[in-house]
Structure formats: structure tokens, C-alpha cells
Amino acid sequence: MKIEREVWRGCLSLIYRRAAVLCFAFMLIGHQAAANDGYLQARMVMPSPKGANAICQTYQWACSVQSTRNLSFAAELALVHKVNAKVNATTRAVSDDQQYRMAERWSLPTNAGGDCEDFALLKKKELVRHGVDPKRLLLATVLDRRRVPHAVLVYRSNNGDLLLDNLTAKVLSWHRSGYIFLRMQNPDNPRQWIGGFRMG
């Protein structure tokens, strides 16, 4: 009887230890998932958006992976807010059809202005010029809240992906945008585009 009790205690102890290990593993997985929720996570490589095929050849900085200098996170975030607000305030919204008589053309804004892709390109150019790592600045296409095709610049901050959007002066987390994300530059290879995002 005493031996049986010892065997049971040993079994229970082993069960509890294994349960504790499993609980700890699930906690780590949950923590990792929560940490990753701040970032857009793609499942596949995609073709580049129509009109964006030539941006790497036209603008070297648009697909660069070389950073010119290191900024503190606080300085970088302040710069992101400043550039977003400035470009939105000083660039007039003009469609490609009005300006170029074509449906889609990705380029920097002209004196007349530009459309959403042009705003995003100008913001990326200015931030790269001021020393933000270009791998943190990713052009992306979305469907906006009205489910209209739109383009934004994603800033990959230390705390998650933030959006620089010509439709708002606020720099918001992608979670709060209400957008459906279609394609984005690959942070590891900005010449490549990725999509099929896990939306939480």
C-alpha cells in the first residue's frame, strides 16, 4: 500500500511538472503572438502594384537597404510625426488621371501635387534623407475604410507598424486604421512585395 502511494505521488508530481512546462510553453507562444500582433505579417511574395514596377530604378532610396546614420527611437518617432504632418500640409492632392492622363503612376509629387502613392514616396524620401533606416519605411497598398484602393507608408517602429497616411495627420497603428492591407515592400528585400497578411 505504501509503495502504491509513493508511485501515485511520483506520477502526480510528474504530471504537474509536465503541465507546468506545457503552461510555460503556451505562455511563451502567447507572448510571442502578442508581440508580433504589432507588426503586419505576410504569408506570401506578391507582384508589385501596377505603376510601382519602376520605382527602384527611378528612385534608388525607394528600395535601399543602407542606413546613413543611427537615430534614437524617440528622435526617429518625432521625425516621423513631423514629416508626415509637413508633407500632408504642403502637398496638394491631385489624381494621376488629372496630372498625367493615366490611371496609375508612382512618382514624387510635382508642383501641382500628387496622389496617395506620391505622398508616401515623398515621406519615404524625406525620412531616408534624415537618416531613418529605409528597411523601416515600407510602401504599402490597402483598401481604405470605404474599401477604395489607397497607398500609405508603413513605419516599422520598435513598438509595431505605424501608418503615415495622407488622409490623416495622425500617425496610427495599422490595427486602428480600419484598412485591409493588400501588399507591402518586403523589409528584408524592398525590391520585393509581400502580401496575404494575417490580420489578427
Describe the structure.
The protein has helices at 2-36, 55-58, 73-90, 96-100, 116-129, 174-177, and strands at 44-46, 137-143, 149-157, 160-164, 172-173, 180-186, 189-195. Helix 3 (73-90) packs antiparallel against helix 5. A seven-stranded antiparallel sheet has the order 1-7-6-2-3-4-5. The protein is α+β, with helices and mostly antiparallel strands and 200 residues long. The protein is globular. It contains six helices and seven strands, in the order αβααααββββαββ. The chain folds into two domains: 1-36; 44-195, C8orf32 fold (Roll).
SSE blueprint and pairings:
Layout: H1 2-36, E1 44-46, H2 55-58, H3 73-90, H4 96-100, H5 116-129, E2 137-143, E3 149-157, E4 160-164, E5 172-173, H6 174-177, E6 180-186, E7 189-195
Antiparallel strand pairs: 1-7, 2-3, 2-6, 3-4, 4-5, 6-7
| Shape descriptor | globular
Helix content: 40-55%
- N-to-C order of helices and strands: HEHHHHEEEEHEE
The count of strands amounts to 7
Strand numbers in spatial order across the main sheet: 1-7-6-2-3-4-5
How many separate structural domains? 2
Proportion in β-strands: 15-25%
